[in-house]
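Quick start: what a row looks like.
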Amino acid sequence: MRVHLHLPKTAGTALNEYLQERFNVYDYEQSHVMSQREIKKIKNGKYNILIGHISIKEIIGLGVSLSNVFTIMRNPIDRCISWYYYMNCGARIFGKKVSMKQFFQSGNKTILRNCYNRQTYQIGDYVNLRLRNKDEEAVLERAKRNVDKFYYVFIFENLKEETKKKFGFVLPKRNKTKPYEKKEKLDDSVIELIKKWNKLDIELYNYVVEKRN
């Protein structure tokens, strides 16, 4: 079984839809605690591909080799900004729109789970905040070792070229985020805040990109 480890806001949904049209896919969906019943269902041999926002520790627990895992990584700053707009500028969380600065300063657990070094933790540990290893450097080093073993790591910024080269298709554009007539102008303090939140993700992303060169 191959696994698409779906990182949020990386065009993963478009890739999932492509896979679902062509293979027998099990959709893990959003991050959650897997029940024994679900584990048994995944492992029954019926499915070709597992997709969803699943953590690497859960994939390993299923007995899946890392050489069968693929994912799409994205520039961490752009990914977090995209997630802010996907949350309708915070309205889907707070019931009203807030500035990007307020959004990332809120300490809201949903925002933390999705934007605080999310790529590194999903690839190197757990998505669930309660289960996350507090030794961040250890998680980062494990994430680097893991991506080295993955079947493939697509880079969002080169996705059109990479999917065509690797699989012979061009991933169609898909974005259900509502269009915004005027996006918020970013100031340096917001960028620095997102960078601080994504120190691990920035290092991991650069590590993967540099290995391509």
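That is the whole record. The CA atoms of residues 34 and 58 lie 8 Å apart. Strands lie at 2-5, 25-29, 49-52, 69-73, 152-155.
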